[in-house]
Design goal:
With 213 residues, this protein is an alpha/beta fold. The chain contains seven helices and seven strands; from the N terminus they run αααβαβαββαβαββ. A seven-stranded mixed sheet has the order 3-2-1-4-5-7-6, covered by helices on one side.
Length: 213
């Protein structure tokens, strides 16, 4: 019983710390639109989007954890950041602020979410002349990634296994050609990625995976 109580207490501390980090990042970077704060409305919207999962903002520290894990095995200076299912755009902005990639992009199937991302980019990033940062509407089941780019792809469980399979079938050749990486938080569909990646490194405590192609 004491062990369970200790684990529960630790879990609450971790959750509080990560949520507080997210909150302060939004405040200090003038991010004013976060639709995840209206859970009922989001749940209603997402029911109309086949094979997608509910809109959530990932713990930003998980992106940092995945970045640090990846850099143990590969130099990321020639990579492009891509947020698949960018939602509110907060992880995209976080990557822009914290990490040194060539470009920063995100896409989502929902046009309204992409409009929100663009608003958040505009309010939080005053000068994008030195680095390209953008969001666009696209369907993960149909998109073909640029064959000449090395991608550091971030996913926070944006869709189910059906879409994941289609995304990887369409792109695994280009991902392998360029030695791209998929970093995956709350990785429910990891078994599908395992069929295509040659190496996967885990942070089990936070349910994180870095998948190398």
């Amino acid at each position: 019983m004491r062990e369970r109580e200790r684990e529960s207490k630790n879990s609450l501390i971790i959750k509080f710390y990560n949520n507080s980090y997210n909150l302060f990042f939004k405040i200090f970077n003038n991010i004013k639109v976060d639709k995840t704060e209206n859970i009922k409305k989001i749940s209603k919207e997402i029911n109309n989007i086949k094979n997608s999962t509910s809109l959530q903002t990932s713990w930003l520290l998980n992106i940092k954890r995945l970045y640090n894990l990846t850099t143990k095995y590969i130099d990321l200076k020639n990579y492009h950041f891509l947020d698949v299912g960018c939602g509110n755009g907060i992880p995209l902005i976080y990557a822009y602020k914290k990490f040194n990639f060539i470009t920063y992009e995100g896409f989502d199937l929902v046009p309204q979410y992409v409009r929100i991302t663009k608003k958040n980019i505009k309010s939080s990033i005053k000068d994008t002349k030195n680095k390209y940062v953008n969001a666009f509407v696209s369907d993960a089941s149909k998109i073909i990634l640029n064959k000449n780019k090395k991608f550091f792809i971030f996913m926070f469980n944006p869709f189910n296994g059906i879409i994941m399979e289609k995304f990887l079938k369409n792109n695994h050749v280009n991902l392998k050609k360029n030695k791209s990486i998929i970093t995956y938080a709350n990785c429910r569909e990891l078994k599908i990625i395992k069929k295509y990646a040659y190496k996967i490194k885990l942070i089990k405590k936070y349910k994180l995976a870095a998948c190398f192609f």
